[in-house]
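#lab-general

N.A. 3:47 PM
ok so I finally got the sequence cleaned up, no stray characters, all 200 residues accounted for. can someone with queue access submit it? mine expired

B.Y. 3:52 PM
send it over

N.A. 3:53 PM
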Amino acid sequence: MTEVATARRSRITPEREAELYEAVLDLLREVGYDALTMDAVAARTRSSKATLYRQWGGKAELVAKAVRHNKPHGSFDDIDTGSLQGDLHALTLRSDDCHMEQNSALMRGLVMAIHGNPDLLQAFREHLIDPEVAEFRRVLQRAVDRGEVRADNPAIEYVMHMMIGGFAARAMIDEKPPTQAFLLSYIDAVVLPALGVPTV
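B.Y. 4:20 PM
back already:
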């Protein structure tokens, strides 16, 4: 992190940052990305717009970081059950059904907004997509190192696609929110077989 970024971040406490992120997510759920303004965030959080821009640079970065903050805390490295099935199940169980339902609705709206907002796509790549892909790769590399998954298995490159697809398709196809039970069964029926991992 650069000195400038460190200085920017040090102007606000972690508690205040969490409050701001929660307010941003509330506004997103109420009005959507396109109608969300920095003025509205400033009014909702009793902040100055100048402070928001100094801290986050703009709406896209603020929204991406708020969504990232809303995800279950802790690195994927905190989870090492000794098997890929155990690791993927443990990652899924970090979010309860209520949290998943809220996130599903929020992400559907943001996916639509990303198509017309290159700055939002860039912020999502930087703060959500790229870090999560890197963490999934570490989990998969551990499985390769343990001998569970062949290093040349072509499905390795598509694990994130499969996971996101299962999460998103639940609402579109079944008209139901994703749940722990659904995602656990999806992992066992789709993701692990594609990787050549037997399920117990």
